[in-house]
Amino acid sequence: MCAVARKFLMGCELEIKKTIDLNFHFANERYFLLTGFIFNPIGEPLPNAALEITLIDGRYIPPREKHIGITFSQADGRYGISLPLKLECSYKITVYSS
Length: 98
Known about the structure:
The chain is mostly beta strands. The protein has 1 helix and 5 strands. The protein has a 3-stranded antiparallel sheet, with no helix packed on it. A two-stranded antiparallel ribbon has the order 1-4. A hairpin with a 6-residue loop joins strand 2 (50-57) and strand 3 (64-72).
């Protein structure tokens, strides 16, 4: 699938340069796209919910946890995030909403 890359652009860069070329090199890993919907307890879509993604590495005792990132649900409760495919690991998703 895809990987995540970050490049912070300052406002002055955007003002000075009309076109900005960005080049990224990704690790040689396989990824998958996790998608789904978030609903409240009565079954209504939950917009703008924050989903915190944590990788659980069960090869260690106790299992090691690594924060992967955060994504947000859309107006219809739909979310999606690209995650590294690690067969020996699992993922924990914690949902926060107002």
